[in-house]
Specification:
The chain is α/β, with parallel strands linked by helices. The protein is 37% helix and 11% strand. The protein has a three-stranded parallel beta sheet. It has a three-stranded antiparallel beta sheet with strand order 6-7-8, with no helix packed on it. A two-stranded parallel sheet has the order 1-2. Helix 7 packs antiparallel against helix 8.
């Protein structure tokens, strides 16, 4: 029985086709030995970064696992989360059927634009996501695939990447993605300034007064990099 580990590109990308796979894994498997006992002859690695190491992965499977097939189809996987508050991450290659299924389940999508760009895996189709009434939030993914964890930089990058959408309207959606949408996805009682909501609030300053309030979301995204004050449940955090 072959056992597969999805290590998100940790082991495979720097593997040379000329180097015996077994010897390659032996040199690196000690990192995982405290977690579980690994039989080198019965392990294979599934990398999770097709934009970077797609050819290595393809060649590897063709050489060692010619009859390899997916364990589950995307629609079957999505259906497993019925009656569960679920957030699906990235979804850059999700087709109409898959987005429809996520919508039917009442799911959310987390969009990580900078990570997706740096890993060169594609860009989430926000227009399709909105057409299927799927709330989306924006996140940084993590420092392993991003140069910053600054959420303002993340939504600013999203603003510039999605050139097919009008910046004024996209900016409003992006602010919702890191406030009310994110709160709903996480099941938190915040994300908007309303009576009865938890008073989790940040304050920040803009360089100039915004006369046209329709442009306020855009100005916030363009000119904000850090917060002035942070309040959690109404208490200021120093």
């Amino acid at each position: 029985m072959k056992i597969g580990f999805d290590l998100d590109g940790i082991l495979l990308p720097d593997w040379s086709q000329e180097e015996p796979l077994k010897e390659y894994l032996k040199a690196r498997v000690t990192f995982f030995e405290p977690l579980f006992k690994i039989d080198i002859d019965n392990v294979f690695i599934i990398t999770g970064r097709p934009g970077i190491d797609y050819e290595d992965t393809k060649n590897w499977f063709e050489k060692y696992f010619k009859n390899a097939k997916p364990f589950i189809k995307p629609l079957e996987f999505i259906s497993m989360f019925k009656d569960t508050n679920t957030t699906f991450v990235h979804c850059v290659h999700a087709d109409d059927e898959e987005l429809q299924k996520i919508s039917e389940l009442g799911g959310f999508i987390t969009h990580c634009p900078i990570s997706n760009r740096l890993l060169n895996v594609g860009l989430l189709n926000l227009e399709s996501v909105k057409n299927y009434s799927i709330p989306y939030n924006v996140a940084t993914d993590g420092k392993s695939s991003n140069y910053s964890l600054n959420l303002f930089k993340e939504i600013r990058s999203a603003l510039f990447m999605h050139t097919d959408l009008h910046p004024k309207y996209l900016a409003k959606d992006l602010l919702k993605s890191v406030t009310i949408n994110a709160a709903k996805a996480l099941g938190l009682n915040n994300g908007s300034l309303e009576e009865g909501k938890d008073a989790d609030i940040i304050t920040f300053s803009l360089p100039n007064k915004v006369e046209n309030l329709e442009l306020l979301p855009l100005q916030i995204i363009l000119h904000t990099n850090k917060v002035n004050d942070l309040y959690i449940n109404g208490k200021e955090i120093k």
